[in-house]
Amino acid sequence: MNHRDIFYASLLLIAAPLAMAQYIWVDDKGVKQLSDRPPPPNIPEKRILKAPGKPLFNPYAPAEPEPAAKPATTSGPTLAERNEDFNKRKLEDAEAAQRAAAEARNKAQQAANCDAARKNQQAIDQGVRLSSFDKNGERSYMDDAQREDLRKNTQKVLAECK
């Protein structure tokens, strides 16, 4: 080996540690960054994969035990609490749907009653001979007093139909 080869070999040995002084980190967008300069200060230590004096990140290495954890503070409801809230909302929605259905049935029944009352009022006003059936199923015709009672009841029903 001549002096020039020894010079180049020693130069390589001196430059090798400088080449190893690189930084590797994952930025905010999840992209791996390589640089000879340290990462920005907003990058947390756990996202710095390689730095001078820090071993290269090995994803297959066993995880280091975390320092003693502080008492757990609940940052939100537990799964059981969330499930209970969900079931409560589900029950409330079902009850609201039942109330809405009952209200719709009541409105339909009231509309049918109002329609029947209008027809009765029209028959009374036209002087049509009206009949009714007794408990034995026999037909009897209404006299003037019964017609007047029916007219008054029909007007009460129609007053609520507005």
TrEMBL record:
Region (Disordered): 33-162
Biased composition (Low complexity): 97-113
Database matches in InterPro entries: DUF4124
Highest taxon in the source lineage: Bacteria
Residue intervals of the DUF4124 domain: 10-56
Biased composition (Basic and acidic residues): 81-93, 135-152
Protein name, per record: DUF4124 domain-containing protein
